[in-house]
Amino acid sequence: MNKEYTRSRYFFLILILGSLTALGPFSIDMYLPGFPAIAKDLHTDVERVGLSLSSYFIGISAGQLLYGPLLDRFGRKKPLYAGLVLYILATWACMLSGSVENLIAVRFIQAIGSCAAAVTAMAMVRDLFPVSENAKVFALLMLVVAASPMIAPTVGGYVTNAFGWHAVFGVLLLLGAVILVAVFFFLPESYPPDPSYSLKPGPILASFRTVIKEPQFYTYAFTGAIAFSGLFAYVSGSPKVFMDIYRVSEKAYGWIFAGLSVGLIGASQVNTLLLRWFRSQQIVLAALAGQVVTGAVFVVAAAAGWLQLESTLVLLFLFLCCLGLVNPNTAALTLAPFTRNAGSASALMGALQMGVGALASVGVSVWKAHSLIPMAAIMAVSAALALGTLLAGRRKITQEVDGGSGTAVLH
After folding, report:
1. What is the pTM for the complete model shown?
2. CA neighbor of 27 nearest in space, from 139, 183, 151
3. Quick check: is 2 in a domain?
4. Of 95, 148, 150, 301, which has the highest C-beta tally within 10 A?
């Protein structure tokens, strides 16, 4: 970390950046236990309610491309303020939704607001901390983010059970307001406005082209996005798998979701220790191999009808452990080569992650099979494609900046 940061200041920065990054996951996870109640109240089915989750992913993907240039032009905080205000207003509209079509539409707008928080947090990590600290900081952010699947669905299950699904969005509205206040009073501006940065389409596209032409960027951005889409398949499919197929209650689903997230959170913290002995590139390769094996076992066992609730939980836990190692390292490696274009690079990385994730989410939602196969198959395919992307892309990198050490590695 920068020498001027005290330990308490460092912790506080991580807490605020982590809260910004966690806003999106909270918005995704907290209403999942309410899917059956939403479907009943809005006179539709769970699969159609799942499209409100897909629209959220699409909104985040599109919105991040919008905020990247704004962060580089106006600094980090002004675009962040605008996004948080939009999030609060859209969340209020979600709370008042009277049809599934309306919910799908306003969830898209809510996502555009929330993605300002995620993009800004990623860019500010690159602003505030040296490259050699980036992978460790991303792992700490993952600690905060991974806590959201432990807290959000559990709280969402109890709130839905006691007050109805509309109240879940009231809680999210309050959370957005608290984060806005914390950002205004306690988060420093980390990047001065750059009047020379043009917001015309031509220069913006040129900036994005500069970023995406970097072999290290597209290799690890696509690898991380495809691997992470397995999580989107799990999130989209889990309400049906657990509450419909395995017939667990809303409260039990929340606790199951929370328990599985321990794999993600634990692995991300083990990653910090592994970085003492291994480079980020080595960890990503090993974790993806484990993810491929787990995904293959999962889809074969699901197709054969061998899985019960307990064995399903074990396989999902192992898959999420692998993902907890992949994500912080691919993020650090993706952003490591950039300084001036960090905002655009962060936006492109996030857009790819959410765009690919949205495809996985839609795939699970429209695949109307009363079994585990849609979720398991998409998770398995995501792992295999991610490993293939990594192996193919690394051949084109001649000199690689290690996100964990900040050093260049020759190929």
Report:
1. 0.76
2. 151
3. no
4. 148
